[in-house]
Write a structure and sequence with these properties.
This protein is mostly beta strands. It folds into two domains: 168 residues, Sandwich (Hypothetical Protein Tm1070, Chain: A), CATH 2.60.290.11; 192 residues, Sandwich (Hypothetical Protein Tm1070, Chain: A). It is 12% helix and 40% strand. The chain has five helices and 26 strands. The strands form seven sheets. Strands 1, 3, 4, 6, 7 and 10 form a six-stranded antiparallel beta sheet that branches. Strands 15, 16, 20, 21, 23 and 26 form a six-stranded antiparallel beta sheet that branches. A hairpin with a 4-residue loop joins strand 8 and strand 9.
């Protein structure tokens, strides 16, 4: 555990990087924000931890009144049941760090809680990791926080990280309702019909939000919100991650998070449906193609590439490596265009030969279809 805290101290220094301040509402971009969503992975044997850093960049905070300015972290199961939460105070230009495994999961969670988040990531039939997600929110409505997170394995000499998905708080009345998180009722989103502006609120990470922002960037007309929920437009949305298996010891997991799990069938808000069955397209580097069915049945979903690609595409020796990409479209007919989505791609290998070991973490590319004329 001591090594994890040393690693956290070293990595915290690396987090102090400059980020661009231009934001594209509707997607998690690298600008100061107000809320963050982070996929948490910690090894059951305590060799791998998730290290989180949140730093204040706008001289907001206090050096005299403890607790006046603070962040609120919450740890959730993959089905969005809160396990534990707490607050951490900060000062101007402060860096707050959390070793999620060492400080929370391995230290404070009960056996029943651990059982809810145990998962098998290497497909050997035994749970080897705890997988959950953490949300972090600020006590203010200012966009003045930046966050990074790492998957760190000090004993294995490996670490990888990426910018945390930051959600901005949008002030003013010039934003279109589609650019903000909607309220939900009966499994359906609720937008004000025909509105073109809305009150302050948090930006959305859904197809409506990104599509509307693109229309405004191109100086095209805003989309019109129909009076009936049954007529809400369906906007194509898909993730396109690359998969890569490096040697026979290679592993690749993709994590897809969604803000709402049970949505209604389009136009049928009184009857909710929970299944998120999706047909995806799987390609290798030679452009060979197969289709597979997956089910994003939880808020945080785990995809195992070795369970998706054909057996002949999986490396069988320490000298082979294979890759390709996936097309993961979101389902139609169930208000998926209003659901927020985030996705991360974790690729790694652990061999007896240390020179073949590696770990990389990426945000997954996303594509959104047109909204114009809808």
């Amino acid at each position: 555990m001591k090594k994890l805290f040393i690693a956290l101290s070293v990595l915290a220094a690396l987090f102090l990087t400059v980020v661009p301040l231009q934001a594209n509402d509707g997607m998690p971009d690298r600008v100061p924000a107000n809320q963050f969503t982070i996929p948490v992975i910690c090894a059951i044997d305590e060799t791998l931890d998730t290290l989180v850093a949140v730093y204040e960049v706008s001289n907001i905070g206090t050096t005299t009144a403890q607790g006046t300015r603070r962040i609120h972290w919450q740890l959730w199961t993959r089905t969005s049941v809160e396990i534990i939460n707490d607050y951490i105070s900060y000062t101007p230009y402060d860096v707050v760090t959390i070793a999620v495994g060492a400080q929370i999961i391995w230290k404070d969670l009960r056996a029943a809680d651990l059982a809810k988040i145990a998962a098998d990531l290497d497909n050997d039939g035994t749970n080897d990791h705890y997988v959950a997600y953490m949300t972090i929110s600020d006590s203010t409505t200012s966009n003045h926080l930046v966050s990074k997170f790492y998957y760190a394995d000090p004993s294995g000499g490996k670490a990888t990280g990426v910018t945390s998905a930051g959600r901005e708080y949008l002030t003013g009345t010039g934003y279109h309702p589609y650019q903000k998180v909607p309220t939900w009722a009966g499994g359906a989103p609720v937008y004000t019909a025909a509105a073109t502006t809305s009150a302050a609120g948090f930006e959305a990470f859904n197809a409506y939000a990104y599509g509307t922002s693109r229309l405004r960037e191109e100086n095209l007309a805003d989309p019109t919100i129909p009076a009936s929920q049954a007529n809400y437009p369906e906007v194509a949305f898909a993730f396109t991650p690359r998969w890569f298996l490096y040697t026979d010891k290679g592993e690749n997991n993709i994590f897809i998070w969604k803000s709402v799990n049970t949505t209604a069938s389009l136009g049928g808000a009184s009857t909710t449906i929970g299944s998120w069955g999706i047909t995806i397209s799987v390609y290798n580097n030679e452009e060979d193609y197969v289709s597979r069915s997956i089910d994003l049945s939880e808020e945080l979903n785990i995809l195992d590439i070795k369970e998706i690609v054909p057996q002949s595409w999986i490396p069988t020796s320490s000298t082979t490596q294979l890759g390709g990409w996936l097309n993961i479209p979101m389902p139609t007919g169930r208000y998926a265009s209003a659901v927020d989505f985030l996705a991360w791609n974790w690729q790694r290998a652990e061999n007896s030969n240390a020179t073949l070991n590696w770990s990389s973490l990426y945000e997954v590319n996303r594509g959104v279809g047109t909204m114009y004329g809808l």
